[in-house]
Design brief:
Blueprint: H1 2-7, E1 21-23, H2 24-48, H3 52-71, H4 77-85, E2 93-95, H5 96-119, H6 125-144, H7 153-156, H8 182-206, H9 213-218
Antiparallel strand pairs: 1-2
C-alpha cells in the first residue's frame, strides 16, 4: 500500500517546504514543447486544411495531462523531457496544489477538444476558441513563467497559495530594476505607433511576392 501511495501522488516532498512542490523550470520546459507541437499542428490546419497532426497532438496533450492529474506528474513524458532539458539548472520550487488545480482546467479543455475533433470528428468556432485558450495558457507559462490557471486557485480554495514562481504570492515592494518609468511606457506607446506607420507606408511593398535570389543576381526576374 505504501508503494501505491508513493506512485499515485501529486508533487514531491522537499526538505524545507511544508507542502508538496514541483519544479517550475521543468514545467516551463514541458509547456514550451507542448506549445510548439500544438502551434505547428494548428498552423498545418490553417494553411493546408489537414487535421491529422492536430488530432495526434490533441491525443498526446490529453494523455500527458491525464498522467499528471490522475497518476503522478513525475511520470508525465513531457515533464520528464523538461527535467532532462533543465537538469543542470537550480530547481525553482512551486506549490503543487495550485498547479494541480491549473492542470485540472487543462484536462477539461483538452478533453473537450479531443471529443469535438477526434470523437465527433468536427471543427468549428468552439474547438478553435478552446485551442486558442490552451495555446495562451501554454505560452504564458513558458514565456513569462505565469500560470494563468493558478490565478483562479484562490477564488475556489480558502487556504493561502504558497510557493509561487518568483514569489508573486507575497506582497512585496518592487525593486528598482523591476519598476517601469513613464518614459519607458512612452517608448512602448511610440513603438506601437511606429508599427502602425510602417504598415501604412510599406504594406504594398511588403506584399509583393519575393523573387528567387539567383534570378535577381542574373537579372532574369520576371516583371
Amino acid at each position: 500500500m505504501h508503494t501505491i501511495n508513493r506512485t499515485i501522488q501529486f508533487g514531491e516532498y522537499v526538505e524545507g517546504y511544508t507542502i508538496p512542490v514541483l519544479n517550475e523550470r521543468e514545467i516551463r520546459a514541458a509547456a514550451g514543447i507542448l506549445f510548439l507541437i500544438m502551434f505547428i499542428a494548428i498552423l498545418i490546419v490553417i494553411f493546408t486544411g489537414n487535421f491529422v497532426m492536430l488530432k495526434y497532438a490533441v491525443t498526446i496533450f490529453l494523455t500527458d495531462i491525464m498522467i499528471r492529474v490522475l497518476i503522478n506528474p513525475k511520470y508525465s513524458p513531457f515533464l520528464i523531457l523538461g527535467r532532462l532539458i533543465v537538469r543542470n539548472q537550480v530547481p525553482e520550487y512551486v506549490g503543487a496544489p495550485q498547479k494541480k488545480f491549473a492542470w485540472k482546467i487543462g484536462l477539461v479543455l483538452s478533453s473537450l477538444i479531443f471529443i469535438l475533433s477526434n470523437v465527433v470528428n468536427s471543427y468549428g468556432p468552439i474547438t478553435a476558441l478552446v485551442c486558442l485558450i490552451c495555446l495562451v495558457f501554454l505560452f504564458w507559462e513558458t514565456a513569462f513563467g505565469i500560470c494563468l490557471g493558478c490565478k483562479f486557485y484562490s477564488r475556489f480554495y480558502k487556504d493561502k497559495v504558497q510557493y509561487c514562481p518568483g514569489e508573486i504570492c507575497e506582497r512585496k515592494d518592487r525593486q528598482d530594476i523591476q519598476k517601469t518609468s513613464r518614459a519607458q511606457l512612452m517608448i512602448i506607446f511610440g513603438f506601437i505607433i511606429y508599427i502602425l506607420i510602417m504598415v501604412f507606408l510599406f504594406n504594398d511593398i511588403y506584399s509583393e511576392h519575393p523573387s528567387n535570389l539567383w534570378d535577381i543576381i542574373n537579372g532574369t526576374v520576371e516583371e
